[in-house]
Amino acid sequence: MNNHDLIVRHIQDSIAVKQRVIESCLPATEKAGQILSEALKQGGKVLICGNGGSAADAQHLATELVIRYRSGHERRSLPAMSLAADSSALTACANDYGFDRVFARQVEGHGAAGDVLWGITTSGNSENILQAFIEAKQRGMKTILFTGSTGGRIMKHASDRVDAAICIPSEDTARIQECHIMIGQILCAVIEKELFQLIS
């Protein structure tokens, strides 16, 4: 396969997965938008977590909320933070309590009833995301999960701790990640519409 064909195949695969997202993920996406908008309207904050590429997505989406989603849309900053961004907190917790607790410990410190925990895991098997969801529910928080087609261990063993699950209909990590950031940005647009009447 030459590079031209490789590029075309990747783009076509991405389009195909996004078409399946339209067919299967709209209700959960709408619910996630409602959860986030209502929490922010009521003075809650959004805590976002993920590992690896999903950690980068967590930082990206938190920034969209704190700064703004669309250029030219002036509005107040919204309270959001990535739990994957503080290297001191991550390494201290991993050293003292184990890597499985790196997000749960921060939820314990920063989370409260009325807040939202937004977890991103392509496999659905990340123990540190699962532990964060358990902690969030104990604190009366709402939870949103971004994951892949099966939802992994979290949806198998802890679906009762998930208020909105967006399970991308693919087994390909790259395609799942592409859809996660796309839907994450769509949710930012929903929030700006619901809170500030800004239409993207």
UniProtKB/TrEMBL annotation:
Zn(2+) binds at H60, E64, Q177. Its cofactor is Zn(2+). Its EC number is 5.3.1.28. It is found in: Cytoplasm. Gene3D superfamilies: Glucose-6-phosphate isomerase like protein, domain 1. Its main location: cytoplasm. Pathway: Carbohydrate biosynthesis; D-glycero-D-manno-heptose 7-phosphate biosynthesis; D-glycero-alpha-D-manno-heptose 7-phosphate and D-glycero-beta-D-manno-heptose 7-phosphate from sedoheptulose 7-phosphate: step 1/1. It catalyses: 2 D-sedoheptulose 7-phosphate = D-glycero-alpha-D-manno-heptose 7-phosphate + D-glycero-beta-D-manno-heptose 7-phosphate. It comes from the Bacteria. Substrate binds at N51, G52, G53, E64, N95, D96, T121, T122, S123, S126, Q177. InterPro entries: GmhA/DiaA, Phosphoheptose_Isoase, SIS_dom, SIS_dom_sf, SIS_GmhA/DiaA_subfam. GO terms for molecular function: carbohydrate derivative binding; D-sedoheptulose 7-phosphate isomerase activity; zinc ion binding. Residues 36-200 form the SIS domain. Pfam families: SIS_2. GO terms for biological process: carbohydrate metabolic process; D-glycero-D-manno-heptose 7-phosphate biosynthetic process. GO terms for cellular component: cytoplasm. Binds 1 zinc ion per subunit. Keywords: Carbohydrate metabolism, Cytoplasm, Isomerase, Metal-binding, Zinc. Belongs to the SIS family. GmhA subfamily. The reaction produces a racemic mixture of D-glycero-alpha-D-manno-heptose 7-phosphate and D-glycero-beta-D-manno-heptose 7-phosphate. Catalyzes the isomerization of sedoheptulose 7-phosphate in D-glycero-D-manno-heptose 7-phosphate. This is Phosphoheptose isomerase. It comes from Leptonema illini. The gene is gmhA.
